[in-house]
Amino acid sequence: MSYQRVKFYQTGTFTVGNRLLDEGDRTVQARTDRSNSLNSGHRACQGCGEALGARYALDAVMRATQNKMVAVNATGCLEVFSSPYPESAWQIPWLHSVFGNAPAVASGVAAALRAKGKTDIRVIAQGGDGATVDIGFGCLSGMFERNDDVLYVCYDNEAYMNTGIQRSGATPARAWTNTTQAVGTEPGNPMGIGKNLPCIAMAHGIPFVATASVADLHDLETKVTKAMSIRGARYIHIHVPCPLGWKSDPAQTIKVARLAVESGLFPLFEAEGGVVSDRTPIRKQVPVEQYLALQGRFKHLFNPRDEEALAAIQAMADRNIHLYGLLPTKPAMET
Amino acid sequence: MKQQIEGSQAVAQAVALCRPEVMACYPISPQTHIVETLSRKVKVGEIGNCQFLNVESEFGALSVLIGASAMGARSYTATTSQGLLFMAEAVYNAAGLGLPIVMTIANRAIGAPINIWNDHSDSMAMRDSGWLQLFAEDNQEAVDLHIQAFRLAEELSCPVMVCMDGYILTHAFEEVDLPTQEQVDDFLPPFEPVQVLDPQDPVSIGAMVGPEAFTEVRYLAHHKHLQALEAIPRISQTFQNIFQRSSGGLLKLYHTDKAETLLLALGSVNGTIKDAVDDLRTEGWPVGAIQLCSYRPFPSHALRHAAQNAKRVIVIEKDLAVGNGGIVSSEVKLALQGLPTIVDTVIAGLGGRAISKAAVIDTVKAACLEGLEEPHFLDLNWEAINRELTRQAEQRRSGPTPENLLREIGLSSGKAL
Amino acid sequence: MIEIRIHGRGGQGVVTAAELLAAAAFHDGKVAQAFPSFGSERTGAPVTAFCRIDTKPIRSREPITHPNVLFIQDSTLLHQLNVFSGLSEQGIVMMNSTRQVEELGLKDWMVQHPEVEIYSFPASDLAEKHLGRSIANVGMVAGFASVTGALTKEAVQYAIQGKFPGKLGALNVQVAAEAFDYVSSHKIGV
Q: What is the three-class DSSP state of A322?
């Protein structure tokens, strides 16, 4: 990481410790002169992880570009809750076309800027996991392989929430959705399917790929800022809990997101040119059960306990910890 | 300067002269020669700082142009057939957003059965998308319409399809008068967008609109087409003043004065139709022809005015509204409602079947002497159809229809011409 | 109007032959239209192309079903397709072949169509000699120009140089020049 990780053991969270930092190190949201891409008054649900993630990501882009930016948005919750005519919450030039084409539309904006020689204006595209890993995947892969100068941000809440909670290619194993209901011999989303888009992005060999979480907004901002210091296709995959779809307490969004990270189910890492270059280590691995138990979408795993499924999910977390070296076995990873 | 040149090359030259800024292309026959040529021109720096993107699909191609046009760049692509259908969602979206993109449609049939040859099924499927649709009779007109299309699109902030018959025009090597850069610059001012993504003046484009305003937004899209009914002939006239030739407009008339029977068609078949009209007139038949150049907007008033004295209008169309009949003829009937004019539908030229002058002449005579069934299918092989229908009636598992028919007719698709 | 139909196989420059004819006619101040048979054929498959030449604008878009000139760039097609379909009784056939009437199996047909003129000459051999590639199209176009006078020699050269820039064009001009002088002695009869 390019910033000094400060541990706030006394508060138990990385997000509330801003006041303990030097002013220059605080997140942009703590500043009185902060940028404000996504204005208050939008229609997101209480505890919406996506609204939080989008605001922090875009504000960081605004700061990195001195507000010279254009955002392209896929159809989805973010687009719907932010834009109803004529009350757009966006304080930046913002374009929504259709569900599956945000990466291509952003490529077009970038091409127009190149044609006009306005390379100081930067482009970001954003969408939910359905727009990114499913319907917009072809356009996204095209944008990646052409290495178009676009930062694509995926807000992953692990299902189609805008349409009422249906399974996407990012829905985790055994999660309930309305199209993977908690019935039958294997309730919820089947094991062993779905796709890992950060890894697919890395396989394109693009300059920068990162994962981030609303549990660590400072880390998220730092990654976005770093992404904006690079030209070419960049991808940031942000884990954003959805209280509605996950059946979790809106007040617990940050906690749920943090447990996903600390259990190892959602590893935080960076990759440059297709190779993992950095990761955010976990102080102490928590059992996946702690994460799953806070979410009604996994309720069927506990009543009665589905030991096999819980063990399989734990194994996924353990595998991530091993793959990305998330536990501090080496002192160098602490920074 | 006059040149003997392939239609696709000529169109590529014309598009290049319009100084596009972003092009995004995906290969599909028969439009490929156009974008191949443009890619080369961009690469050697002939089109200024124009960006050419090789994209992953037609849907991606038009989506790129949606972004580029919203950023204020003059944007162009070409497609056809399956490609147009693959980008359908973006086609409607570009029009809904009011982005003045110009797209060549090298008109081609839609499968199944897969067929790479010409008819108008593709652009007809997008007729209600909100794009203007202009049809070229020959390659000179294809060139001229592209130049007019950029001006029309940008004046109205509405996307335009320039439709030219696949292979018949795209691959025809004929004489075309290519304009100079000075002429095109004189005719086509730089693109001044009515909406643009600008960090200095941020706007949200593509916001959700609910029932309280959606109808009004749709009406305004319709209103643009009503404005186009005025703009198309005016821009065609301006074009004529600068380029010294007549091209485009809403419709063109050929010997319609005192004609009792009028043939009406879109695109390149109008050449064959004019030859047929000449022959029929020589034989004493009072026949004329109307070339519909603008299909969207549909020039109902101009058409009604042109056809009001005719007893019969025979619409020759390269498309089929399955389960209904003619697409164009239905609209012609609406335009002529209240008049005693008979409107015949002739479905012809599907999937590249050649429309011969002889067949046109025979059809006119049959219509005038005996009347035509509605709709009339030109040169339909009833024997093969009846044998296949019998087979289907006799056995449940009758197999794939196209293969059965080819066996009946004893041809492979490659030799169908 | 001269209506020329060209038969050959994919890879033999059939479409190019039609374009050369049209380009030469254009240079001579005539109006011309060339177009392929719009197929998706691959190398080696039968291919057809068309060319119309006139002194007034050409509006028709139908394929040529009643040609007055036929090019047969590959004589192996003679007995695979009805290449003579619709040919005018006073038509001209330019055939790329070294074989005689008997060998070509055309005797009966020629007897039935006595006014058709057939020129059979090894256009592809000429190209082989000058270019090292046996592509018949240039020789066929030059032969047609020579026999009919429908195109000037200069126009044929212009068309060739427009299509093949540089050295390839110069070599093709040599092919054309030889074919131009050589073809008239290759009229075949029964």
A: helix
